[in-house]
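Q: Focus on the shape:
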Amino acid sequence: MIRAFGWNEFLVIVAAAQWTIALSAIAFAGGSVGGLLMALMRVSETRALRLFATGFIRVFQGTPLLMQLFLVFFGMNIFGFAINPWIAATIALALHASAFLGEIWRGCIEAVPKGQREAATALGLRYFRSMRHVILPQAARIAVAPTVGFLVQLIKGTSLASIIGFTELTRQGQIINNATFSPFLVFGTVAAVYFLLCWPLSLIARRMETRFSRATAR
């Protein structure tokens, strides 16, 4: 039976945003760990580590996120590992984020003037201590704006998790639309919620980028 789109349906859509936020947060946390490892491997002095990180990044940047979700969800089941959509979406998005954050942070590390690394070497600091105490703190300042910008893209990317049955914001919108047949109201509400989640982060990224540009111009 078709029902009208009303206040209860609106609240259900808004409540579903908590799963989008949770999925984004977990995937970003996992991607941050993986991304840091990829970035450090990319600038490593060991050729094997550089090749591994380069291959990993190219695979996940060169394939659609939707395919990655399918491969994790269906692939794990094919090999006999029962996996639910929540775990599959988390793994796929974390791997996706690792590749993109790794490349973003690699660029930020290499943006630190070479003189800083030479100065650390002159002070007798080895590779890891040089990275920890000299290079990474400076790279982190550069990385804030693009990292927040990627987080916005990741939040929007969680909408693809609906394809494998994870009930987040987009999937809940699809369920309610099937019951109300009010696509404009339903998906307009979904789009508004995504906007309210992403717009503040976009402002933060823009302000951080402007602040960094002013600081480097002095």
Q: What stands out?
A: The two ends are 66 Å apart (CA to CA). The first helix runs from residue 7 to 42.
